[in-house]
Records
---
Amino acid sequence: MDKKILVIGAMGQIGSELVLELRKIYGNENVVASGRSSKSPDESSKEKGPFEVIEALDKEQIRKVVEKYKINELYHLAAILSATGEKDPKTAWTINMDSLINVLDLAKEYNLRVFWPSSIAVFGPTTPKKAPQQTVLEPTTMYGITKVAGELLCSYYKDKFGVDVRGLRFPGIISYKTLPGGGTTDYAVEIFYECIKKKEYNCFVSCETTLPMMYMPDCIKSIIQLMQAPKENLKHVCYNVAGISFSAKELADEIKKSISCFKCSHEPDFRQKIADSWPNELDDSEARKDWNWKPDYDLKRMTADMLEKISEKLGKQG
């Protein structure tokens, strides 16, 4: 059967790059991008293939697109992230949970394979600092609460209705193409832009704050690899997936190797408490064993690529 793919939240940080890669693999006409609005700074998703306006809270709107394009695989990326969710917890719950139930209900009805991203936000202060695949999930943010509830919902729909739903517990995602959208790990992207523009950055977490991160090419690779894996190989609904773990100081020091005049100061805000509640590292041995996961980027390679690409993007020399 040919893939007919719908990406909900295609204008976001992950979605904008995932759509392009999926179209390379499966053909432009077989990958439908969607967003809440037809207006977007990134027009590539609309120029190179089908695009539909979808409000993820409107189940019937999603249904019409599923039927119109005969969708059999759906990537549900629309969500309110951690820092933004703390400012409006009720909206975060509504958008993150109701949209997921809509997708899972339609997956049951139309036999869709679903990808849904979880997050390190499912963990909390009681989780070991190197978080194993199966561990304590006691988050301290509304975003984390919705991700724990989402994991349980996905497991429920898989066990009760046979829905083929697959997820990844992502660390912080670093990308030069699309600016982050209100997450606690956003500093790891902001630092590159501020370094190139101003040669200085005031970081909102402390210098010793160490968090798991992942460069966008590895993020996209992990999604596609998981979705292509044989169903019988998958023992978990949501897998830990790791890229690089580093402290804010280690990242700044790596940047200074290329831009020696760069200065990084630290002024922790409310996001520090969120960062402190998360693990320093993810144990992704189950993903490596079940579907041969392995990241391509380390801190040095990622930093060099980010500096080069953002310098090009901003029209300046790094």
---
Amino acid sequence: MAGNGRKPGWGGMLGRNNPSFIKSFFLISIYFFMLFMALFVPFGFGFMLFLGVPFIIYTVRYSWKHALIAGFAALWISLIIGNAIILFISFFYISIGITMGLLYHLKKPAIYVVLSGIGLFIFQAVLGIALLQSALDTSFFSLLEEQIKDFRLDAALMEQSAQFQEFVDEQSSVLIFILKNTFVSILIFSAAATILAHHLVSVKLLNQRGYQIPTLPPFKNWRWPRSILYYYLGAIGVMWLISWVPELGEDQYVMSVLLNLIPVLSAMITLQGISLVFWFADYRKISKVLPVVVLILVVVLWPVSFLLNLLGILDLGLDFRKRLFDK
């Protein structure tokens, strides 16, 4: 009714509870456009970071029941136009989108939604790998090794150089070792990056259109518990001890845990350092350009990442923010 003083939201303007066939078709079209870009267009893989966003928005605008119907339709189309891999990818991202959308609709805290999305991402990835191994009766890493070896043979044929082939063999062995021993950390990084991208884009779009979606705290206020520092220093200490006593590193389980744990904890500490830079820029009223430049340099220059890692350690250990406030 006019005169109630309430501005209609996105859902109210477009019929929140009764999505038409055209709206559902539009949702599915957007999803398959993004999927096509991600799978078949050079450098389009970045679309994978946002594949579930259409279903997040659809679930919040209407309901999880309507989103499920649209999701089943998308899965049916995936099976018709693609294969088992495309079907799995669609199920993977549609389920993440509907789950996160439902949690937003229930007004769950942002950190709860993000952690739930990360957990679902990891669970589905592990389940997919298990199903793949069962179907092909071989291990995931054996399949991965075969793919790398195929590339090695192709490269060797192209170059017709024994020296080049030896170099490729060495690099292939190193790559296989790294992937085998850091798979867990790679999976965690992939899950965190994907779900954070889904969250940031979805919240931005929904809040612009009248929805009050919970957001994460400002990045400048991100802080980890001090226990993260103790775990990190402990893992570094064990790795340092192994470098002095190589016999301790013969246990593959211990080395695998360390090789997965240290990168994750190191990334968390580095984020603490970057957060401190953003906080200090805000505290001193410095231009926001400076912390953004620092963030870019972290990706480009390894020494900057090392310095921010050190800054994160000092911030966790000495609590720089509290000390500055006390002054």
---
Amino acid sequence: MRVHQSPELAGLAELWGAAAAGQSCFQRFSFARTWGQVFFRHGVTPLVVHDAEGKWILPWAARDGVLFPLGHGVFDYVDVIGTGAAAGSLQARAGALARALRRCPDWRRMEMRGLPEDSPFLGFWRRLAAELGAEAAITPFAAAPLLRRGAGDAATVEAFARKHGRAEERLRQAQRRGWLGRVEPAAERRELLTWLLEQKQRRLEARGETNVLQAREAEWLSEMAGLGREAGVELWAYRRDGRPAAGLVTFLLPPVRYGYLLAFAAEMAAASPGITLLYFVLRATIGEGMDFDFLTGEQPFKLRFANAARRLLQFRLRRAPPRR
């Protein structure tokens, strides 16, 4: 077992890539590396633990006495980096890991939100809490609606269109009046993302809500968007009269496309530009033979199109006081 505390994660790229095979987009190395490049400059300390062969990696970081997974607050899914085959060996190391954590004096509690309920590593998290002799709680957090291709009314694009006749008609109208598609030029991608973040901020402020994409989180997303196809980051737009009516950020990791950030122009709300653009991307996803993951939150606009869901948990652990 090794602890990697250098802010530069590049030395883990090969091990990380192999261990993350089959997991969500948020377990990819490019996501963690880019997050680290932003947050390690602002008082966050890496505490990445892994075995020598790279079968499993615990992508942790620490700040102000709290241990948390890399991407805390912006990654919808968090977990051990590793395939299910590594679950048994990691669980067997829970005692050794707990002893190592006790030697780290600078943390008081551990937090993580977005642990998949079906994670093969759930037993490890429970064992770790027991070994630390701490107060721990693993409780329901949220659900992530999914659109699974090949299931019921999503078996084909045609079946999906018949199921959602109103959205289909709005899409035809939008295509006659404007342009919908994936944005490729780098300058246009940056411009669209800036617009997206501004629209999202205005809408949340109008509702008295706080945006999770604060300055540093927005910086991370901007850096990711700059990587483009290299990191599987896609930006989609619906434009009318040369102006953006809606925008969508997705992450692509076949066979799944993940919908991360959707925003629309408030003055065009009556025409449902956000739902129209989302529907356009859902049609494209089904046509490409993939599933669509709406990520955390059961908002009505997601449930309108979803046909399944993934349950997520939150894990909180408070460190036991030192023995006297």
